[in-house]
Amino acid sequence: MQSTAGRPQLMLAHFVAILLAVPTLVMFVLTLVGTVTAPLGIGILLVTLAVPTTQLLATGQRGLARVVLREPIEQQYRDTKGLGLITRVQRWAGDPARWRDVLWQLASVTIGFTLSVLTIALFAYPIWSIVWFGLWKGLPDIFDTPYGDALRVTTTSGAIAVSAGGFVLGVLIWWVTVKPIARWRFGLDAYLLGLSRREVLARRVQEVTTSRAQGADAAAAELRRVERDLHDGAQARLVALGMNLGLAAELIEKDPDAARQLLLEARDNSGVALQDIRSVVRGIHPPVLADRGLADAIRAVAVDLPIDFDLDLRPPQLPPRWNRPSISVSPNAWPTWASTRGRRPAGCVWRRTTGCCTSRSVTTVSAARTGAAAAYRGLRDGSRSSTARWRCRALPVGRPS
């Protein structure tokens, strides 16, 4: 079953919706009259008043529907800033969102208003059952037929039974129906005031296109990093190794001591080159990540930094494709931070929090540090195609971040 707000919030939302029905009806009439009389000139003035006011009312109703349904409701209107009066009205006339607002006005003052009044009536009925008993005690000849001539109450015990039965039945009916009615009433508002299906699909296509482009850019950047590390590290040392072996081959008969020294250097270079290659491989997928998990892998990165870190890492269970970006952000962010803070201790806190619709992995870092903030923005952009959300926020200097 779809989640909704609590019953007290639902009753308050219905009450506010009933209050908004009056100005909504007025704006609906003004919009219709203004649209019909627009060729006469006076209709333009009415539309200029009705359309912005309708937008405010629709925004308020979206807020109510968002609270009741516990889901985001968005709408996009065409921009009219800086336009003249006639051009602005023409832009409004060509905006599908404005016409959906007009359709919402009609539905709100008819179906929506009826459902809200019904909910208030169901809530008031148990109270009326108790009030009726007091009225019957004072004026039994007038209030002796609470349900018409089909039932006539003449005794106190009968009045108590009718009052108690009406109260219990009314509470049960209200309790069972208040949430379904709220979903129907405010679900209609969300459908009419939210984005159309075509707009939702267009936005989703844009997000998928952007995420694919970012994924391709991230893969290309990772490939360039591996190539750069191999070129600047292992390749250079292997070239030096080959040169030393070549010189040693030439000097092995003329100067055995010099050849021996070159061979020793070649042996050292081979070990360093092997270490560089291992570093590149570990950068692709660190063994500690597979053996001990994400938190220990980040701690392993922090060990080599020239600053004491106080790490409080409680990362959530992430898909494997996120582990590598999560680790790569650390050496990009923390050295920049260390260079600005000197040797003073710092801290990193990574915890799991819960959001409205999805779970979030929140990583905090000092956004005042350009390198750190850029690194975390890169991580956020790299994971945009997933359901997780990454947030980079600024914290005062001196506090763990």
From TrEMBL:
It is an enzyme of class 2 (transferase). The chain crosses the membrane at residues 12-34, 40-60, 106-135, 155-176. Pfam families: HisKA_3, Sensor. It comes from the Bacteria. GO terms for molecular function: kinase activity. Residues 16-192 form the Putative sensor domain. It catalyses: ATP + protein L-histidine = ADP + protein N-phospho-L-histidine. InterPro entries: Put_sensor_dom, Sensor_HK_TwoCompSys, Sig_transdc_His_kin_sub3_dim/P. The keyword Membrane applies. Its EC number is 2.7.13.3. Signal peptide: none annotated. The keyword Transmembrane applies. Residues 222-289 form the Signal transduction histidine kinase subgroup 3 dimerisation and phosphoacceptor domain. Keywords: ATP-binding, Kinase, Membrane, Nucleotide-binding, Phosphoprotein, Transferase, Transmembrane, Transmembrane helix, Two-component regulatory system. This is histidine kinase. It comes from Flexivirga alba.
